[in-house]
């Protein structure tokens, strides 16, 4: 199998909208999808769906008939669609879907523009630049009968601006070089055919230009498409071959590898299905990690046989906290309901120090995760995001419930870090350096891997010997057993159970002893969480049976009637308990330090899961991206200027100092004169508004001089007062305003000083500063005139400056 990564460049030629399925209450009805840094992006599922549709169009043109070789090749690349293709809904008749060989990443803002924005502004100024990439577009519903806007149907959609460039990766995994070449040419043709993407693309939005690998081989692609594609390897869905050889577990020591998983994309560790929402677990279960680890692992012998025998175990990965050790909160731990010090509350163990605990109201820690380091326990929480998807009916070109409709994925957010372990028999591990290299790399994990989910970077290091049971010798009269993961154990009736008796039976079976004969049942105390284990067999295409299991965090404090040897304790700590241990079930530890030291521990406030945020350097934008960057900066500055103007004109003392008259008073200048000024400014092109205002002021000055000489005057009976005319002239001409602590500042510098967080530094861009100064002067005057008129008609009204002022 050969995997090749193709680079896809996407340039937005028009404004566009790819939404999240939700809005922002009171402001937006639909929002643009944004990545972790807040930039608009194109989800991989959208990109894959649109390219698949374009590929089917290309295949139809190349085949010039029905289901020809190119149509079959397209289905091989993108996978089958049994439901969309109208197959029977009954499980007996419906063919199970076949996965495609093409994986897409989300299309994110070009690194150059992203680095440029990070380099010119820091938080919170950067937020202004990010928000400037979008704008709110109003819309209405037209009543079919009246032809006018329907009542209560005004809506605002968030629209991303044109000119942005995005980059994505397409990974193609095929068996030979010829297939790779055919796939690259076929996908390049699909990129050429695709002209629009996203919502409302039939109403002017979403015009794009796609380029695959720079499209430098357009001639080669055309020649390759003139020949039929190679026959794709057929994959018949069905059960895999069962292991026929006996799989007896090997004896010997274990090699333990600590594996760190960094999420490069959102990851869907599917939990429950609630309506049309697929929830996600807060950790990465071993059953989810095992297939990926199996593909990466390079060890002598048959890996399938070793997994089946339990000689390779992949433990769950829990969210990384402030220390290297993360555990599930023990079921016997409690904390005060109202601690004296919320920043550091004391840990209580159920049943111990009864005299002290009797006066303290307590509650359980729950089944969350704790970062453990010495005498400190810190709760660790994971960040999740909700992402909306849909399945489009090709005929209706909209989602329908018959083929899936609209559904929501709850996924673990990207950039988070999880830590787990892989245990391998030392006889199978081979060279340690080679083992660590094979377990370090990039892999896809979880559900919807072909649609922008589950890309993970793994880093492997050898683990130290942290198992206290391995150092035990002699005899003991009891021990504490802690379950790091869920354990599937069976009771006397061979049914999965979550109780003390089932755990005893599992220990007897694992250690080859009869622990129950020596156990002091009256003194032994158990704190067992019962969980429900579910699953899905991809090979069979059917759900696995659900059954009860002992939950992670359970604790059993065994006490014996007489001393017993520690040999079997070491064995169960190393080998684990119960079934399906290769998937991470049944990992336990004996007498862990956090149980022995619990009475002196303190619980601190929760922290977020460890995160690796990419650090950006400085970048120089060129060409079209330079124009886009400048347009974003100017838009951000304009919005910041409007916000500062709103605060300035609301101050009555500043208003009089700026304009020469009191806001809202029925005095000169009159509304008629102010209306003429507003009309003249609005009718002029945006870049000429300041000059239009100055032309009015010059004419006013000339007319005043003519009247003094006894000459004729026009029919303009309402005039600006000399004080107001002088103030307007100062604002529009860029002269010093003569107010405040800095009387020598012009309007642009003065407004800039009023901003809490200017969107970056305009630097030496004199032309841009002059453009903004001209725009700011007219915006300031228009805002003042608007507030003056409103205060006259409705005293006390609050002025809101529009984005087009």
UniProtKB/TrEMBL annotation:
Keywords, sorted A to Z: Antiviral defense
| Domain (CRISPR type III-associated protein) ranges | 10-208
Q: Which CDD domains match?
A: RAMP_I_III
Q: Is Cell membrane set as a keyword in this record?
A: no
Q: Which GO terms describe its biological process?
A: defense response to virus
Could you name the domain of life of the organism this protein comes from? Answer: Bacteria
Q: Which residues form a coiled coil?
A: none
Tell me which PANTHER family the record gives: CRISPR SYSTEM CMS ENDORIBONUCLEASE CSM3
Name of the protein: CRISPR type III-associated protein domain-containing protein
- What organism does this protein naturally occur in? Martelella lutilitoris
